[in-house]
Amino acid sequence: MSIRWPRVLNPTYLSQIIRTQKNPLKALDIFNEAKSKYPKYSHNGPVYATMITILGTSGRLKEMRDLIEQMKQDSCECKDSVFVSAIKTYAKEGLVDEAISLYKNIPQFNCVNWTQSFNTL
After folding, report:
1. What crossing angle do the helices spanning 81-92 and 96-105 adopt, rounded to 10°?
2. What is the pTM of this model?
3. What is the mean pLDDT of residues 26-41?
4. Domains of the chain by start residue, with CATH
5. What pLDDT digit, counting tens, does each position of 95-121 carry?
6. Which value, in Å, is the radius of gyration of the alpha carbons in the chain?
7. Strands of 1-121, DSSP E
8. Would you indicate the residue range of the signal peptide (predicted)?
């Protein structure tokens, strides 16, 4: 299925596009392609959250880790809920140490409130 890209892309529209993808890797390709197709476009916290959730729930942990690292490099302002999804995924997969490590590294991200993540642990 080919994507019909809009003239101007916004994060809400990109979230809708990637949510409709059945293949999580195709969704990730679209997520990554957006920045090259639209040089002035930047992912925001909700778009990262959507993509992280898609990757986590489909068991694509390596890709999820890489995306979390990309989010940190982008200094993307995000809400605590982004980390909740990843922490739940790690816990479900039995990767408690990874969940704790992610929680401890939240201060390195552009995120100011960690209450939800703490409660999830």
Report:
1. 160
2. 0.88
3. 95
4. 11-120 (1.25.40)
5. 999 999 998 888 888 776 667 776 676
6. 14
7. none
8. none
